[in-house]
Write a structure and sequence with these properties.
Blueprint (H helix, E strand, L loop, with lengths): L6 H19 L3 H5 L7 E6 L6 H4 L7 E6 L9 H13 L4 E7 L3 H5 L8 H6 L1 H9 L1 H5 L4 H20 L3 H10 L2 E8 L4 E7 L3 E3 L2 E3 L3
Helix pairs in contact: 4-10
Keywords: Lyase, Metal-binding, Zinc
GO molecular function: carbonate dehydratase activity; zinc ion binding
EC number: 4.2.1.1
């Protein structure tokens, strides 16, 4: 349990510890970060507090450009995601785009039903609920809601990648310089990433199979 009663006190104190440890390990670390950023990966992930991409990938500040939202959705009409993608792909020239879902995802689980979550969340999760309806026969064969939620999370990652492939900046970068897109699921219980899809691979039932 934290010794800090106030969560703001906790994060401010944590920041001071981070700054001190980082400076002790590499005195020029922060000075280098002021010179600019050259991330090779754009990570589109869930806002879930248990999936901090830099931490779970053992990366450092400057390594990953990030966009996170509820259930790691990429909607064709979402200007926030689209602007992040355009900046990362066209200006930062990232080499890889990752869409990462995860187990125990509240959004994927909520998409298993049509329970009222409030106007904004109902609208946001509508495409994920449509995936559930589209794949109802497959999902009904799974043994329990945990398995169904994981499958919905996988399908949602695949759908988000399909939307990204239609983004003009992504299409141009794929053609001009070999940008690749990758789908992953993070297993919260194991702390491990699982690859679902990779451009150039062959997808079967939403899972990625290496090209022969």
């Amino acid at each position: 349990m934290s010794i800090f009663a106030d969560p703001i006190d906790r994060i401010v104190a944590g920041n001071r510890i981070f700054a001190q440890k980082t400076a002790e390990k590499d005195p020029k670390a922060f000075e280098e970060l002021t010179k600019g950023q050259w991330p090779e990966v754009l990570w589109i992930g869930c806002a879930d507090s248990r999936v901090p991409e830099t931490t779970v990938c053992d990366c450092q500040p400057g390594d990953i450009f990030v966009h996170r939202n509820i259930a790691n959705c990429v909607h064709a009409d979402d200007i926030s995601a689209a602007s992040v993608v355009e900046y990362a792909v066209s200006h930062l020239k990232v080499k890889k785009v990752v869409v990462c879902g995860h187990t125990k995802c509240g959004g994927a689980n909520a998409a298993l039903s049509d329970a009222d979550l409030g106007t904004t969340l109902n609208t946001w999760l509508h495409p994920v609920r449509e995936l559930r309806r589209k794949h109802k026969a497959e999902l009904d064969k799974l043994p329990h809601d945990d398995a169904r939620a994981i499958r919905v999370a996988e399908l949602n990652v695949a759908q988000s990648i399909d939307v990204l492939k239609q983004h003009p900046a992504v299409k141009k970068a794929v053609a001009d310089r070999g940008l690749s897109l990758h789908g992953m699921i993070y297993d919260i219980g194991a702390g491990q990433l699982r690859l679902l899809e990779e451009s150039g691979g062959k997808r079967s039932n939403g899972l990625w199979t290496p090209p022969h």
